[in-house]
TrEMBL record:
PROSITE patterns: AA_TRANSFER_CLASS_3. Its EC number is 5.4.3.8. Belongs to the class-III pyridoxal-phosphate-dependent aminotransferase family. HemL subfamily. The modification N6-(pyridoxal phosphate)lysine is found at residue 267. It is found in: Cytoplasm. It catalyses: (S)-4-amino-5-oxopentanoate = 5-aminolevulinate. Gene3D superfamilies: Aspartate Aminotransferase, domain 1 (3.90.1150.10), Type I PLP-dependent aspartate aminotransferase-like (Major domain) (3.40.640.10). Pfam families: Aminotran_3. This is Glutamate-1-semialdehyde 2,1-aminomutase. Its main location: cytoplasm.
Length: 428
């Protein structure tokens, strides 16, 4: 495949946009080469500026769970746009989508919409601090909760890919209130509670991690966190920006039957427009301005185009009793196919998967936390990535990222992908 136009556009972009991109992981730094510039997308496919078709396993990093340019979302956005793009006043649609979300997700009474996953997590932490009157939080190494200061402490995703776990610009004062724990290690969390009695406002966690590749919670881990939070008067925040409306209608709370105190959303909830949200029971949400003392706001929050897109997306997911079963079946088919190929070729690997989130690590050792996720960040991954790209299969350009499977993928697409993997495996 030729990427002449993409190369030219990237060179041009680098002149006026830092690194040529508006979000670091798009830059292909981890795998080398030139990012692909996309012109349009439909269903399971991206079409780039050079006219290549790529089967998309990134799907805008999660949101496009029903495929690109999903007609009900596109139509709703067009119709809304004709009536004005922002009012800065309440609209009936905000209540409609809030009612639907509260219905779909267990254990939440109220939801507040923001513009990104970063904002959702940042606001969730402020709310937890305001509610508990405590300042410290626990986060897990390798989990990414957006680029707000308190979270850029051994964060996953682009923040590891670029080796800047502690970003300059985050003050010592902020960093001291973020306690770092090891994913899947309850003893480690327990020790942090013992060392900081009555000081920890919240634990924030990706309940299925997706920013160090996919890392599932070990049996009993989430329940253990729930118990520690209950025993210590600490709130449990599930960052379901990736997992919400993807692993089940009600996210990981529903999938594993664990209750969180605050839940953060992003990605799918916006149907591909810039939306985030955070939600909790009344007693916690009523701490928010204008009813409560914790301030949080946004000029474009609840924007009509964004809400129209999100509402159509959630309605489609809510109405489809089979959607999560279908996504699981497709991803399981892919997983089995990849396992068979790599085993046959004698290539060392680990595959982690929960529902439609999957990652392939080129190392035989289990990947259970940030340290072990590093094993697969190697030359094999880079070759795999570029080999697949040359075959027209687009996976995330970093070993620390998860693939997101879309329902628009057909079994023909999956078979095409497996054939490509078979070819590429010979080069590893
Ligand atoms: N939390 C998680 C789990 C995420 O995966 C991300 C983004 N990848 C965020 C928060 C931040 O969301 P956004 O990029 O929309 O700010």
């Amino acid at each position: 495949m030729l990427y002449e136009r993409s190369s030219r556009l990237f060179a041009e972009a680098e002149q006026v946009i830092p690194g040529g991109v508006n979000s670091p992981v798009r830059a292909f730094k981890a795998v080398g080469g030139t990012p692909i510039f996309i012109k349009e997308a439909k269903g399971a496919y991206l079409y780039d500026e050079d006219g290549n078709r790529l089967i998309d396993y990134i799907n805008s990093w999660g949101p496009m769970i029903l495929g690109h340019a999903y007609a009900p979302v596109v139509d709703a956005v067009i119709e809304k746009a004709k009536k004005g793009t922002s009012f800065g006043t309440p609209t009936a649609l905000e209540t409609e989508i809030a009612k639907l979300a509260v219905n779909m997700v267990p254990n939440i009474d109220k939801i507040r919409f923001v513009n990104s996953g970063t904002e959702a997590c940042m606001s969730a932490i402020r709310l937890a601090r305001g509610y508990t009157g405590r300042e410290k939080i626990i986060k897990f190494a390798g989990c990414y909760h957006g680029h707000s200061d308190s979270f850029l402490i051994q964060a996953g995703s682009g923040a590891i890919t670029f080796g800047t776990p502690n970003s300059p610009g985050v003050t010592q004062g902020t960093a001291k209130d973020t306690l770092l724990a090891t994913y899947n290690d309850l003893d480690n969390v327990r020790a942090l509670f013992e060392a900081n009695p009555k000081e920890i406002a919240a634990i924030i966690i990706e309940p299925v991690a997706g920013n160090m590749g996919c890392v599932p919670p070990a049996e009993g881990f989430l329940q253990g966190l729930r118990n520690l939070c209950d025993a210590n008067g600490t709130l449990l925040i599930f960052d379901e920006v990736m997992t919400g409306f993807r692993l089940a209608k009600g996210g990981v709370q529903e999938l594993f039957g664990i209750k969180a105190d605050i839940v953060a959303f992003g990605k799918v909830i916006g149907g591909g427009l810039p939306v985030g949200a955070f939600a909790a029971r009344n007693e916690i949400m009523n701490y928010l301005a204008p009813v409560g003392p914790v301030y949080q706001a946004g000029t474009l929050s609840g924007n009509p185009l964004a809400m129209a897109a999100g509402f159509e997306m959630l309605k489609a997911l809510d109405a489809d009793a089979e959607i999560f079963i279908r996504l699981d079946a497709k991803t399981s088919y892919l997983e089995t196919g990849i396992r068979n190929i790599l085993e046959k070729k004698g290539i060392a690997f680990t595959i982690n998967r929960v529902g439609s989130m999957i990652s392939v690590h080129f190392d035989a050792r289990p990947v259970t936390d940030f340290a072990t996720a590093g094993y697969g960040n190697n030359d094999s991954f880079k070759k795999f990535f570029h080999g697949l790209l040359a075959e027209g299969v687009y996976i995330a350009p970093s070993a620390y990222e998860t693939w997101f499977i879309t329902d628009a993928l057909t079994y023909d697409d999956l078979n095409f992908t497996l054939q490509a993997i078979e070819k590429v495996a010979d080069t590893l």
